[in-house]
């Protein structure tokens, strides 16, 4: 039975080093690129022949579009629609990354803190930029809400700062933990299928059930990540 943690090892495919810094193109990088390319091609394929009455293929991207639009309106408001492109991209990137990792010999980059954490930090920096752009210096009220006595500032400001900085952490840990645990279970049970020979039919059936469940989890985690991104963006746009 192979080590179930081997599937998470990042391996350089094209070694690149600049100034002593390793910026190699890895298996993780490859599957990030594949996620972008595959999602783009699928949408282009589904929308190549657009009609007033949508075909089955056309209805898929339109349904996703309507779904994300509804999420934004519910969690941010109509004002958030101007940032639709960001939320839509986040959902597709996470969803396709999760699903692509379920294929044999694929690499699940959403199981790595570096990849998901980087995406979460980008979303946080975007939220900060939007908040400052709209509220100017009033954005600093995020760390000292109105109505709180100034005497409590030494207590409230650190608490609000920790709460604010924990947003990318909560986004990252939830997604990484779910993707990692699910793939470890799949790998372990798959090992029993090979080890038991003919008797492996039982763990094989169980593994198939887990794969179906993992598909659901992959989409659910993309949904949760997107909803939380909407909520955090809403906090940046609206007054505390």
What can you see in these coordinates?
There is one protein chain. The chain is 67% helix and 4% strand. It is mostly helical. The protein has a two-stranded antiparallel ribbon. A hairpin with a 2-residue loop joins β2 (17-18) and β3. It is globular and about 70 Å long.
Biggest sheet layout: 2 strands, antiparallel
Mean pLDDT: 86
Tally of DSSP helical segments: 6
Number of extended strands: 4
The end-to-end span amounts to 53 Å
Instruction: Please give the order of strands in the largest beta sheet.
Output: 1-4
DSSP helix fraction: 55-70%
- SSE order, one letter for each helix or strand: EEEEHHHHHH
- Low-pLDDT parts are none
Q: What does the radius of gyration come to?
A: 21 Å
Strand content: under 5%
Structural class: mainly alpha
* Rough outline: globular
């Amino acid at each position: 039975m192979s080590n179930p943690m081997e599937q998470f090892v990042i391996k350089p495919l094209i070694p690149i080093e600049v100034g002593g810094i390793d910026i190699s193109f890895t298996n993780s990088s490859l599957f990030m690129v594949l996620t972008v390319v595959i999602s783009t091609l699928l949408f282009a394929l589904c929308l190549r022949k657009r009609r007033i009455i949508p075909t089955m293929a056309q209805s898929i991207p339109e349904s996703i579009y309507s779904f994300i639009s509804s999420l934004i309106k519910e969690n941010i408001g109509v004002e958030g629609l101007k940032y639709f492109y960001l939320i839509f991209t986040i959902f597709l990137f996470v969803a396709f990354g999760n699903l692509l990792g379920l294929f044999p010999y694929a690499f699940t980059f959403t199981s790595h803190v570096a990849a998901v954490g980087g995406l979460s930090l980008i979303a946080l920096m975007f939220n900060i930029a939007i908040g400052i752009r709209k509220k100017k210096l009033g954005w600093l009220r995020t760390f000292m809400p109105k109505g709180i006595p100034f005497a409590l500032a030494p207590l409230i400001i650190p608490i609000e700062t920790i709460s604010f900085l924990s947003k990318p952490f909560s986004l990252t840990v939830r997604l990484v933990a779910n993707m990692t645990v699910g793939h470890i279970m799949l790998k372990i049970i798959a090992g029993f299928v090979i080890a038991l020979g003919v008797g492996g039919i039982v763990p094989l059936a169980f593994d198939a059930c887990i794969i179906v469940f993992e598909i659901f989890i992959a989409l659910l985690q993309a949904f949760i990540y997107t909803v939380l991104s909407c909520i955090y963006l809403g906090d940046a746009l609206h007054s505390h």
